[in-house]
Structure formats: structure tokens, C-alpha cells
Amino acid sequence: MALPPGSRVATGGGIKGDYPFTPAQIRADLRRAFGGVPVSDVYGMAEANWAAFECACGAYHIPPWVYAVVTDDDDRILEGPEATGLLAFFDPVAGGDLIPPFFQTADRVHLVVPGADPGLACPCGCNGAYIKGAIQRVDLTEEAGCAAQV
């Protein structure tokens, strides 16, 4: 199937368990099936009122209205323009009855918040916070919400 010029295929949902194909193989198969269009991933979750699209450099860019941080194993926010820990975020347009709308995920990420340091900006040219590298689901079953319920 050939898609119109300028099209892009996006994947999302993550791999929740064992899967026989690598992300590289999945992307190659999708490019082949859709006439060579670019393939990107999208990171998101039911609790978020946003999605982070993967750029050509492999970074997941967090929308500017979301304040993202990472926390350590003791749930303390890690300071600095780059840190690795569990992603947590303040989303002013989400939350329903949750006040304030601040969420901690079970996803270990490397978060980069360039701020005033242009050397940390993503090479794609997008400004703002982004997730660099792999996103790893951490087994927090004792703290899990609806996705881990039987």
C-alpha cells in the first residue's frame, strides 16, 4: 500500500510482554508494507492527556504544557537537566478528581530538560523536555493501578 507523500506511520502501546519481533524488524516490516514511509513510535498512557512523539533522532518529545521530572527509588524528584529514574509529570489539563494532577509512572526513563543549556537540546531541533533512549517498564505490582489488576 502506498501512502501519500508526507505520510508517516506511528506505532504505540509498547511491548507489554514477550514479543517475537524486535522494534527494528517491526519498523522494517511497516516501511515495506506502506511504501517506505517513515515510522515513528508514540509514548503515552491512559492517565496522560498527551503523547510524546518520537523524532527522527529517536527522542520522545514531551509537550510543552507538561512538567516532567524523574524520581529515585525513594520517590524523591531528581534535580538537574539530565536524570534517569521513574517518569513523573504534572499535567494541568488532566487528572479528573486528582488535585493536583501529578502522576508517577512505572516507566524508567532518561529525561533531558535542556532549559538554558543549548548543548542538551535534541539534535532534531525541537525545544523542550524529551526522553532519550529506551523506556523500561518497572515491575511495581504492589503499587500498580488498573493495568496490573487481575
Describe the structure.
The protein is mostly beta strands and 150 residues long. It has 1 helix and 8 strands. An 8-stranded mixed beta sheet has the order 1-2-3-4-8-7-6-5.
Keywords:
150 residues, mainly beta, Luciferase, domain 3, 2 domains, eight-stranded mixed β-sheet, 1 helix, globular
Chart the SSEs and their pairings.
Layout (H helix, E strand, L loop, with lengths): L8 E4 L10 H11 L5 E6 L6 E4 L5 E2 L5 E5 L10 E9 L11 E11 L17 E8 L13
Parallel strand pairs: 1-2
Antiparallel strand pairs: 2-3, 3-4, 4-8, 5-6, 6-7, 7-8
Q: Nutshell version of this structure?
A:
By secondary structure, the protein is mostly beta strands. The protein is 7% helix and 33% strand.
- What's the helix count? 1
- The N- and C-terminal alpha carbons lie at a distance of 39 Å
In total, the number of strands is: 8
Unreliable spans are none
Q: Categorize the overall geometry.
A: globular
Major sheet: arrangement of strands:
1-2-3-4-8-7-6-5
H/E series: EHEEEEEEE
Strand content: 25-35%
State mean pLDDT (0 to 100 scale): 86
In helices, the fraction of residues equals: under 10%
- Structural class by sheet pairing and helices: mainly beta
- Main sheet makeup: 8 strands, mixed
CATH architecture classification of the largest domain: Roll
Stated plainly, the CATH topology of the largest domain is called: Luciferase, domain 3
**Which value, in Å, is the CA radius of gyration?**
17 Å
